[in-house]
What does this fold into?
Amino acid sequence: MKVLLDLNVLLDVVQNRVPHYRDSAEVLSRARAGEIQAFIPAHAITTLHYILAKAPGQPKADQTVDSLLAHFEIATAGKDTFQRAPQLGLPDFEDAVVASIAQATQCSHVITRNEADFVGSPVPAISPTAFLRLLLAAEKVAERGGTPER
It folds into this structure.
């Protein structure tokens, strides 16, 4: 399963934002373990580095970016991505770019805590908590040999 991680999920983890940290960290952990293929929009890397360089500082920002680059796919956005974004009809341009990137990379979901911002997105948005429930349900189906529970 391919997913696109919104910046707020990354910030939950690197800034230890309670109560969101646990589920966001679990999503990242499952991606690092290879259970899911997780993409990060390229612009989220630069924004994250900027935020972290201010506090806790440049070394932590560099370390965090290096770790993300080592464990996640980076989804780039070209001219066509930015041109398609406004056509999606989402109220926020950055969210529309994220949705456009998710569509271009054929992701099944955008994992975000701002699901309401993605209403109308061609790729459904799901919270980290709901996504973990979805994974758990899929794992249970797989344990039963791929047959749905009756």
About this structure: The domain at 2-143 is CATH 3.40.50.1010 (Rossmann fold). The first helix runs from residue 7 to 14.
